[in-house]
Amino acid sequence: MKTLEEFVSLFAEQFDETDPNEITANTEFHDLDEWSSLIGLSVIAMVDEEFEVALKGDDMRSSITVEDLYNKVLAHL
Amino acid sequence: MGVSYNPFSLEGKTVLVTGASSGIGQETAIQCSKMGAKVIVTARNEDRLKETLSQLEGEGHSMFIAELTQQEELEKLVGSINVLNGVVLCAGKGMTSPFPFSTRGKYDSIFEVNFFAPIELLRLLVKKKKLEKDSSVVFVSSIGGVDSFQMGNGVYGASKAALNSMMKFCAKELAAKKIRVNTVNPGMVNTKLIQGGAISEEQHKMDMEKYPLKRYGEPEDIAYGIIYLLSDASSWVTGHSLVIDGGVTI
Description:
Order of helices and strands of chain B: EHEHEHEHEHEHHE
Strand content of chain B: 15-25%
CATH architecture of chain B: 3-Layer(aba) Sandwich
Helix content of chain A: 40-55%
Largest interface: A-B, 16 and 15 residues
CATH superfamily of chain A: ACP-like
Strand order of the largest sheet of chain B: 3-2-1-4-5-6-7
Number of helices of chain A: 4
Number of strands of chain B: 7
Shape of chain B: globular
CATH topology of chain B: Rossmann fold
Oligomer: heterodimer
Low-confidence stretches of chain A: none
Radius of gyration of chain B: 17 Å
Number of domains of chain A: 1
CATH class of chain A: Mainly Alpha
CATH topology of chain A: Non-ribosomal Peptide Synthetase Peptidyl Carrier Protein, Chain A
Strand content of chain A: under 5%
Largest sheet of chain B: 7 strands, parallel
Shape of chain A: globular
Helix content of chain B: 25-40%
Mean pLDDT of chain A: 94
CATH architecture of chain A: Orthogonal Bundle
């Protein structure tokens, strides 16, 4: 099982311009300049690949921080 | 010219509809029966297919449970068919996956359902001479991969582009047998295929605003186009992709 820290790092990997150190468990990710619908789809695909969990678009929308999203993944396991 | 005048009638035609347990396939089967066709419906789920069968109007319809990605089941389905005047290949599967995550396995699973299954079914129907002269074949393709290239839609779009391409090859070759082959290419249609996936309800609402007609399609919007292509009204139409998309590709 991946830890929150590992999840944050996998999450940060989906960005190209944003400094990975800028992204923490408490980051409100929708507010990041680089955040886009494509990165949203990439995060969903990453979760599918790493956790075999199919997050829905609505799970992304209702998560505020990266940790919220991690908890949604755990809830689906 | 009486009230019975209808160049789009399917009276006297037997039509096979795949993917008939839900969405565009289900609606197409129902509309074809209302236009007078005898309909053979096929899908994987028995309960849902029975539900479709019960909604068909008129007499002489039948159902056949089959997993069309399985060669044996395809052959049984084709073996059970006497003769057809129309085929509508609706069975399909959606997938949202950005390019770096689009592994070979994802392409395989989508191409199996969206491309190889309908093409193999058509091949068997032709080879076994199940299609009457003047038959019409309609593939349900998509604007995705043909006219529209939304992010994350590559695997699905490529499968539909392949289908569109084969439709044209089939149209050219099968014209010798007087069999017509066309596609309908829908934009976003309100079915289970687009609901509850990676695209949120809110994103769909925003996307809808890009449609000049300001809404997604309903299954019957597509079924009516399919009826045109099945009917004798389209006798001189083959190798064509009928875009039905609320104007989004303009």
